[in-house]
Specification:
heterodimer; A: 151 residues; alpha/beta; 7 strands; globular; B: 408 residues; elongated
């Protein structure tokens, strides 16, 4: 999928993308391109990238690169794939009923689900909200469990 | 059947068997089955046999079946009609007359155009229902719509009433159509109608009957009429058809049959040359509700509207919500990018330590703190690694009191 969606391996690239995407939602997928679930998510992202291109940009970040480890720690990325949303260099949170609101863990079941999520984020951002609620019903949201450490 | 499938054969099963065997040509076998049936044969069974006999021209067995049916359903005209037709086909005129006399004696009324027995038996019977269900299941399609292909008793009664009403109306008007002639055409009409109804696949069409003496108006004239089944009756009652009737009944019937064999009964509106001159939608002419004088005003109004739309769209896009997330940052960044494009400001100071605005998972307080926290944790983590290398001596736990006591 690397040749279809822009894949970022350096911190510099990620930074420039975050800073330069203005008035559009930036979707960053953190994951490995060889993982099965990542592949499924990449497939959905690729297919919907064009449809949401007017209000969103999609990019993939390879989690195995060294420079990206800073971001892995900063964003607390433990599950693959994780998707983080940005708008105007501000991080957008989404309440999807899980414990972690800062990112979307897992894949989407349908293209339409992904488009709905991105649309919800865009609408919330345009209204000035930093956190939005998820438009999907709970059965279509991938479930995961957060492990605690040093709390 | 009981051993293989665990179900007891019922009368419907026997009806199906008789039907299949009869259709195949072995009507004697079918009769055999009926005589050996443990259950009393009902009208479906006899009906199946009668149909098979009709197809394979077995008059004797047809008579037996018809008589059984007459006993089962004394008011039905179907068996009489079928038997009559068979006798006519084999030119047994005396027998045919006898049937006629029986009908009059028992006060059986034959409906024009569509035999009650065939209609109701075929389309209201259990067999038909089963067959339709099987077909739908096999070839896909809404099983809930199977009901459409079946005629209920009430609908049938309504149709019969309608037919009777039509007949009386037709009798009032000047019906010259010969009464004797159509008798011989019962069979043909029956067949034609059943063919039509199968084509149309529509419940309404089943209820149609061509009443004698009432002619469907066909508009090769300049009158606009609608040749639809439901409207037919009212149109025919209107009366202008009466002058058409005498010679042209057969012709009209044939026309109508031909038309209905097609898919839709669309009539042509007479398109005169006048309308062509004025122009229509396709030529781009203005619609008739606009006056010619007001046409110019209309154009001006349209153009101004369009320009308004364009300008309003431009206004909308330029005015993004100032309260949106990161608005201030976005404005600043846009300015920076423009400056970079122009080449005035070269921003090459890439900060390796720049981190975007991010709110952490377990965090109370504002987002600014999350970056600070992270930086602190980052610094703290290598020190923590160093410390873990020094082995801590294991000591038992001594309570405070004990320690106090020992120190005292």
């Amino acid at each position: 999928m690397e040749y279809l969606l822009p894949t970022l391996r350096e911190k510099r690239e990620v930074d420039s993308l975050i800073r330069d995407t203005i008035d559009k939602v930036l979707v960053l997928r953190f994951g490995r391109s060889s993982d099965a679930v990542c592949l499924q998510l990449d497939d959905i992202l690729y297919k919907s990238a064009r449809d949401v291109s007017r209000f969103a940009t999609v990019a993939l970040v390879d989690v195995d690169s060294e420079e990206i480890q800073v971001y892995v720690k900063y964003f607390d990325i433990t599950f693959m794939p994780s998707t983080v949303f940005f708008f105007n260099a501000h991080h957008m949170k989404m309440d999807s009923g899980s414990a972690d609101h800062t990112k979307w863990v897992g894949t989407f079941q349908r293209k339409q689900d992904f488009i709905d999520v991105v649309e919800a984020i865009y609408r919330g951002a345009m209204k000035g909200k930093l956190i939005v609620s998820c438009p999907l019903p709970p059965e279509r949201i991938p479930k995961f469990q957060l492990l605690y450490k040093d709390v | 059947m009981i051993c293989d499938f665990g179900i007891e054969p019922r009368v419907e099963h026997f009806a199906s068997i008789v039907d299949v065997v009869g259709r195949y040509g072995q009507v004697e076998e079918a009769m055999d089955i009926i005589s050996r049936m443990p259950i009393e044969p009902d009208k479906a069974v006899w009906g199946a046999l009668l149909g098979a006999c009709r197809v394979h021209n077995n008059v004797e067995l047809a008579r037996v079946a018809a008589e059984a049916l007459m006993r089962l359903e004394p008011e039905s005209s179907g068996p009489y009609v079928l038997l009559y037709n068979m006798y006519v086909d084999v030119e047994r005129w005396s027998d045919a007359d006898q049937i006629r006399i029986m009908m009059d004696k028992n006060d059986i009324k034959k409906e024009r155009g569509y035999s009650r027995w065939q209609c109701h038996q075929t389309f209201g019977g259990v067999e038909h229902w089963k067959r339709v269900k099987g077909f739908m299941w096999k070839y896909g399609g809404g099983m809930d719509r199977v009901d459409l292909f079946r005629i209920a008793e009430e609908d049938f009664a309504k149709w019969e009433k309608k037919c009777k009403a039509l007949k009386t109306e037709g009798a009032k008007a000047e019906s010259v159509g010969p009464v004797v002639g159509p008798w011989k055409n019962i069979h043909n009409e029956l067949n034609a109608d059943s063919v039509n109804s199968f084509c149309k696949n529509d419940v309404d069409s089943f209820k149609f009957c061509i009443p004698n003496g009432v002619v469907p108006l066909h508009s090769y004239t300049n009158e606009k009429t609608q040749v639809s089944c439901s409207v037919l009756s009212s149109v025919s009652e209107a009366g202008p058809s009466s002058h058409n009737m005498p010679g042209s009944i057969q012709a009209q019937d044939a026309q109508y049959l031909r038309n209905s064999a097609g898919l839709m009964n669309l009539t042509q509106t007479c398109s005169t040359s006048k309308e062509d001159i004025i122009g229509n939608v396709h030529t781009g002419a203005p619609p008739p509700w606009f006056d010619a004088t007001k046409g110019n005003q209309l154009d001006v109004a349209l153009k101004s509207e369009q320009s308004d739309l364009v300008s309003s769209k431009a206004r909308k896009s330029s005015k993004l919500n100032p309260k949106r997330v990161g608005a201030a940052w976005a404005e600043r960044r846009k300015l920076e990018l423009e400056l970079e494009k122009r080449g005035e400001l070269v921003n090459n100071n890439y900060d390796a330590n720049w981190l975007p605005n991010f709110g952490r998972v377990w965090q109370s307080g504002t987002r600014k703190e999350s970056r600070k926290e992270f930086r602190m944790e980052d610094k703290a983590s290598p020190k923590a690694d160093n410390q873990s290398e020094v082995l801590m001596p294991l000591q038992p736990y001594i309570s405070k009191r004990m320690r106090r006591d020992t120190s005292e």
